[in-house]
Amino acid sequence: MALPLQAVTHVNVNCSDLERSLKFYRDLVGLEPQSHTRPAPQAGEGFGLEGRVVWDAYLLHDDRAQGGPAVDLLEWQTPGPVGRPHPEANHLGFMRVCLAVEDLEAQHARLVEAGVRTRSGPVSTPVLEGADVRFFCCDDPDGTCIEFVERREPGPVRMSHININCSDLDASSEWYQRVLGVQPIAPRAEPPAVSGEGFGFDGECRYRADFLAVGGDPGSFILDLLEWIEPKPIGRPLVEANHLGPFRMAFQVADATECCAELDRLGVEHSGPCWLDMGPDLPMIDGLNAVFFRDPDGTMLELIETPKIKGA
């Protein structure tokens, strides 16, 4: 039996200057800060960090507010952030945080006018047979790759998907479906060689990908599990929880302890339930249980137990 995931909670993006990055994601991307987590020092064991740790973070949402997925924009303070986001589109692990917008050209022009580095103008690329996608990629203030795709229907900016680069699509897709219970929402994408311009490559590139979602819901936040064929994948997913860039993805569950027992049965190493304080700006909850584990390539995933409301 797979993990009983209820929803995607957030994609964590580590930044070096929270206020600077908040202006980017709020004012230029269009996401709204809904929650502020600024806890006191606490044990960093669950994150793989020694001693007591401190962070300051905002959860930013689209128009679905707290009923939808979020960007967990986080600045590590103790320990401070390290490294930099990997710039290569074929680097293993989380790579592109993707949002859908109604007017791709206007979004590109707004970012360029604000001095944001874009990897190309809007380009089209085939994904599935008879279905092209128009997109462009840019860098957030620290260099995390943000992708914008054109919405198929009018509406505000929407959290669309997260790109997870893997070394073996067959093995990783089987693992995600067996362990997380996410389901394909479309046939496997295996387009022919295409221009690599939109991804920042010279010449052509090739890849294959599976699109997976909690409950197989195509309207939810999608996992774009992708294996690069040309160029080949490089590097490894981020190891340190305080490394700049997208580090982990969190899913909501009802019971963290029961999920740990299921991970044991599935042979997946994990942290066990870790109690996390969320800070004084969320006074309605004491904190929450989280569980950390990695996919076959080492990409970090997280389970978050539904918080208990004080007095409930």
Structure overview:
The chain is mostly beta strands and 312 residues long. The chain is globular and about 50 Å long. It is 14% helix and 39% strand. It contains four helices and 18 strands. The protein has two domains: 7-84 and 246-305, Roll (2,3-Dihydroxybiphenyl 1,2-Dioxygenase, domain 1); 93-230, 2,3-Dihydroxybiphenyl 1,2-Dioxygenase, domain 1 (Roll), CATH 3.10.180. Strands 1, 2, 3, 4, 5, 15, 16, 17 and 18 form a nine-stranded mixed sheet that branches. Strands 6, 7, 8, 9, 10, 11, 12, 13 and 14 form a nine-stranded mixed sheet that branches.
Short characterization:
This protein is mainly β and 312 residues long.
Which SSEs are present, and which pair or pack?
Blueprint: E1 7-15, H1 18-29, E2 32-37, E3 42-43, E4 52-61, E5 70-78, E6 93-101, H2 104-113, E7 123-128, E8 131-139, E9 145-150, E10 158-165, H3 169-180, E11 183-184, E12 194-195, E13 204-213, E14 222-230, E15 245-253, H4 256-266, E16 274-276, E17 288-294, E18 300-305
Parallel strand pairs: 1-5, 6-9, 10-14, 15-18
Antiparallel strand pairs: 1-15, 2-4, 3-4, 4-5, 6-10, 7-8, 8-9, 11-13, 12-13, 13-14, 16-17, 17-18
Q: Class of the largest domain in CATH?
A: Alpha Beta
As a percent range, the share of helical residues equals 10-25%
Largest sheet: 9 strands, mixed
- Given as residue ranges, the uncertain stretches (5+ residues, pLDDT < 50) are none
Number of strands: 18
Q: How many helical stretches?
A: 4
- The total domain count is 2
Beta-strand proportion? 35-45%
